[in-house]
Write a structure and sequence with these properties.
two-stranded parallel sheet; seven-stranded parallel β-sheet; 29% helix; 11 strands; alpha/beta; globular; Rossmann fold
Length: 263
């Protein structure tokens, strides 16, 4: 049975652990065991760990895939800590495959269609930290999943926009991905082993912000957000070119296809 480790069982890591445990042997880490549901702890092997901590107890030697989901926020030396971790892992098990959860924020404020061949141009501190890690992993045959805005259990950006007025960029495209799709592509990587590289993990279709968020708010019965109609600016459209080239079949080709997320 394929053995998968997940470093950072947070919102996304918990979902991946639950789903992958159906047919993979899973171990995972976080700082606080009590924050994990008991139903998950019955299915996986748990280890305490925070970035920069001791690694001796983690079972890298017999692990096939390692999914890394720890975000860079509030970790000043995130890049160097991640690189040190991955170097240690490579020494313990050169055959282990790393799957790094990154973000489309690495494309920064660029405008127009962008694919994996487009240059990164991170503007935020967090994106700049992730770029350091990506540059290291690109030389070490890892999968880098640049995920769009995350949607899934208890999480949807429309709730942060509900009731707000004069929101910028009504005509900019949304670049979103559902946690179920991320799980689907991770499973695809394990089963099909496409070429390790950067993959934009984003819905293939990109409706405008105003169109999408107002429609979803109406369907959920929450206050419809108001947009600044005088703001003509466009944003980036992140194309999942490499995902499509692998033959992966999307579950949700448009954000409108995703199940409604109710809080």
């Amino acid at each position: 049975m394929t053995r998968v480790g997940i470093i950072g069982i947070g919102w996304l890591g918990t979902y991946l652990a639950e789903q992958l445990s159906d047919d993979c042997q899973i171990w995972g880490t976080n700082r606080h065991k009590e924050k994990l549901p008991g139903s998950l702890l019955d299915k996986i092997e748990w280890f305490p760990y925070e970035l920069g901590g001791k690694l001796e107890s983690l079972p890298f030697a017999d692990t096939d895939y390692l999914i890394f989901t720890i975000p860079p926020s509030r970790i000043a030396d995130y890049g160097s800590q991640c690189i040190a971790l991955f170097q240690t892992i490579r020494k313990a098990n050169p055959k282990l495959t790393i799957v790094y959860i990154s973000s489309t924020s690495l494309y920064g404020d660029q405008v127009g269609e962008l694919n994996e061949n487009s240059s990164s141009s991170p503007t935020s501190a967090n994106a700049q930290k992730m770029e350091v890690v990506e540059n290291f992993l690109l030389e070490n045959e890892a999968y880098i999943l640049r995920c769009g805005g995350l949607i899934g259990e208890g999480r949807h950006p429309v709730y942060a926009l509900s009731g707000r007025t004069q929101i910028a960029k009504p005509n900019a495209a949304v670049n979103l991905i559902h946690q179920e799709e991320i799980n689907g592509f991770v499973r695809f990587i394990i089963a099909q082993q496409p070429t390790p590289a950067i993959y934009n993990v984003v819905c293939p279709m990109h409706p405008d912000r105003k169109e999408y968020y107002q429609e979803v708010a109406r369907e959920l019965g929450i206050k419809v957000p108001d947009f600044d109609e005088d703001d003509p600016r466009k944003g980036k459209i992140v194309i999942p070119m490499r995902m499509q080239e692998t033959g992966y079949e999307f579950m949700f080709r448009s954000p409108f296809d995703m199940p409604l997320i109710r809080k």
